[in-house]
Every structure is written in C-alpha cells, then in structure tokens.
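We now fix the convention by which a protein and its fold are recorded. The integers have meaning only within a learned vocabulary of local backbone shapes. A complete example follows; check for yourself that the lines match position by position.
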Amino acid sequence: LGQRTRDPIEGPDGDILWTGMWASLIGRMDKDTGEMQEYILPPAARPHSIVPGPDGNIWYTGNSNGTIGKLEPDTGVITEYKTQARDPHTPIFHPNGKMYFTAE
C-alpha cells in the first residue's frame, strides 16, 4: 500500500513486474505461483517506468534522481546510470539495441 504502483509489464520469463514509485522498488509476481518479490532500489530513484531489455535485464527510469537503472532479475543486482535528464520517463528499446526515453 502507498507505493503508487505503475506500468506493469510482462518480463522475459512471463512473470509480471511493476514499479512502486513512492516506495522506490520493482515488484515481481511469479506467473505460476502468484508469489511476490520486491527489489528495493536506491531511495531517491522513484522509478517511473520499466521495460524488459534485449539482454534479459529489467530497465527502469529513476524519475526523481535522473537515472536509468538496471535490475538483473536472476541475481537482484541493481546498477544505476546517471543521466543529464531531469526526470526520465517511458523507456523503450529500439531494434538497434539502444534505449530511448522521454524527459522534461
């Protein structure tokens, strides 16, 4: 409750993932068991959107801290990349393998 759930997606393995913007987390629901898991992100991330990447990782936009983040779902490792964007939103991967996103 209170996490401001946003933008659910289907991951590469069929599980459902979403961002919890106010809680700075990515949630995951196992498609077979219904079991839920939370990946805690850096507190200032406040992720806006997520997208599965061609590399099998889950990528998110850190709306509050101007980052693009990567979650490795098999290990839970999170890596953040600082951008020059004030508040990145809505990532998408182009067929060329590069990620593009909107920002104000």
